[in-house]
Every structure is written in structure tokens, then in C-alpha cells.
Amino acid sequence: MTRIRVGTAARVLPVAALALFGLLGCGKSDGKTANGAAANKGTATSAPADPAEDESAEPAKAAVDPCKLVSQQEAEKLAGTRLNSAQPVRETCTYTGPVSGPTAQVEIYVGDGAKKFLEIDRDLGHDLQPVSGIGDEAHLEDGTIFFAKSGTWVSIRLVRLNDPAENRKPLEEAARKAASRM
């Protein structure tokens, strides 16, 4: 029964994650038109056009690069095999195994996508175990660890065809290293 569930999850979760990230991107607008000019929303503002002119403006929070949280060497250690180069897409980074095998993949999600991934797994009733000593909050389930540090959520997902219990300590170690880089 576990093999069927893990196999199904290994096929369904990447598709669901891609669909989720596609939906998260829909409808977002940076308030600019196609030529980069600010779109007129019908309201006047007194804020300066250049944020540098506003001394009270807080500096933008630097985005966390998911590929810098887990190096290729660390991903390969986690997966137990050689992996292809990192494939960054927005707030994600994926290291895939070679097509010749063995089956292995390491995925890193940062920000709202990682938090939504955790919320979905909670809603589905996944067995999430609390983990101490990683960031401000951390939870582990078969094949994935989630943690938050300074308000930013990160998930590291490992796809392997082995007993998920074998991956607990390596996932915790990877999350500790990743949290230390934030």
C-alpha cells in the first residue's frame, strides 16, 4: 500500500505543484503597462515616483535564491546519486536525476509557494512532525521538510525510491544548512 501511495504522490505532487505555481502567478500585476510605464489606476498619489527620494521608505527585502540554499553537492548527497545542474524557476530550484536513473530529485521552494505547499499538506491530513532547532518553526513529513526563518517559508522535497524514514536525518541536515544561509 505504501509503495502505491508513494508512487502516486511522486507523480501527482510535481504536477500539482506546477499547477499551484502557475495559479499563484496568475492575476498578479506590478502596476505597469506592457511598455513598462506605470498604469493609471484612476487614483492620484503624493508618493515620490522614485523610492530613493522617499527617505522614510524601507529598503526592499532581498529575495532568497533557492539554488543558493542547497548546493548541487548537497543535493547529490541528499539524493544519494549524481544530479543534473540546478533548474531555477521563480522561487524554486530543482535538481533532477539523469534520465538513465536512478530516480532522484531535490526541489527547493521559497516564500509563499513553500507556505502554500505546507498548508495543502496540512489540509490533506499529512503526518507533519515538528522539528526543533531549524529556523523559527519546522515540520517534517515523508520526503519533505518545511521551515520558516524571519517570516520566509522554505521547503526541501526529496524524491527517492527508498524508505522515507531513511531520509529524515539528511533532510533535517539540509534544512539546517539552508536556514543558516538565510
Describe this entry's structure for a reader.
With 182 residues, this protein is an alpha+beta fold. It has a domain at 64-182. It contains 5 helices and 7 strands, in the order αααβββαββββα. Strands 1-2-3-7-6-5-4 form a 7-stranded antiparallel sheet, sandwiched between helices. Strand 4 and strand 5 (137-141) form a beta hairpin. The longest helix has 24 residues, at 2-25.
What attributes does this structure have?
single chain, 182 residues, alpha+beta, 5 helices, 7 strands, disordered N terminus
Q: How is this structure best summarized?
A:
The protein is of the alpha+beta class. It has helices at 2-25, 66-69, 72-79, 112-123, 168-180, and strands at residues 87-89, 92-96, 104-110, 129-130, 137-141, 144-149, 152-160.
Number of helices: 5
Largest sheet: 7 strands, antiparallel
Shape: globular
Stretches where pLDDT is under 50 for at least 5 consecutive residues are 1-13, 15-62
- The SS-based structural class is alpha+beta
Strand content: 15-25%
Mean pLDDT over the residues: 77
| Helix fraction bin | 25-40%
Distance between the termini: 38 Å
Extended strand count:
7
Q: What is the alpha-carbon Rg in Å?
A: 19 Å
Write down the secondary-structure element order. Answer: HHHEEEHEEEEH
As laid out across the biggest beta sheet, the strand order is 1-2-3-7-6-5-4
